[in-house]
Amino acid sequence: MAVLNALRRTPSALARNPVLFVPILALALVQVPQLALQSINPLLSSVVSFAMSLVFIVVIPFFQGGTIAMANESLDGRTSLQTFITEGKANYVQILVAYLLLVAVSFVLGIIAFFVGLFGGVLVLASGGFESMNLLALGAIAAVVGIVILLYVLFIFFVQFYGQAIVLDDYDAIDGLKHSASVVRHHLVSTLGYAIIGGILGGLLGGIAALGSLLLSPRTASVFHLPELALPIAVLGGFVVLGLTVLLGGFFSVYSVAFYRALTR
After folding, report:
1. Residue 236 region, left (φ>0) first, then alpha (ψ -120 to 50), else beta?
2. What is the Cα–Cα distance from 201 to 185, expressed in whole angstroms?
3. pLDDT in tens, 31-44
4. Which end of the chain is less congested by CB atoms within 10 angstroms, N or C?
5. Angle at the Cα of 164 (from 256 to 6), degrees rounded to 5?
6. DSSP string, 15-64
7. What is the reported pTM?
8. Tally of domains within the chain
């Protein structure tokens, strides 16, 4: 019921408040030069991508706090960019702390999975390949990697509403993470349905991003023998990708807040 209620309320909130798309558009535009570089200098694009990842660590908490506050206001009436700025600043520190904790946990789990996988690879090579390797050892390595991945997925699943808890209910970083876990624990079925919808939207965004990279890749024109149409296709594809990214991003920002409110209000 909470999922359906959130889906029902989201379109009307966006229709009343197209200003919600402005911050998302701004964030998407920041990433356009990185995509454009893929068709000019892929190596430089990788360097820029890494630098942008570091910048986003600082920027995302402000963006997250502002968009959550705007989405919350949009569900009850009108919102504005002033809300984005005010609430982004007011909640920045707590969201940043929580965000860094998420990054730290993800990093630790990623390192564990990497070294276990690396150890498994070395073991395979040392034993002469998969056929001669002890199946029990191989199964144990695969199980450890699988457990680490499962722990990561569960962790993200339970703490996914920390931003809403901080912005809407005035929790600090640690309590926001705890409150999110508590909300999910008490509404597992509803949250699973929400996560499936979110996964579909995320998959669409990922597919759109992949399409943009493909269109801007210098290999695309050579593979399809379109040297003269490569630039027009890339420009048109870029606008399509940008538009769909903004639309889906705006939808999910309101949908996530509407769902959280349906569970906690």
Report:
1. alpha
2. 23
3. 776 666 665 666 66
4. C
5. 25
6. HH-GGGHHHHHHHHHHTHHHHHHTTT-HHHHHHHHHHHHHHHHHHHHHHH
7. 0.83
8. 1
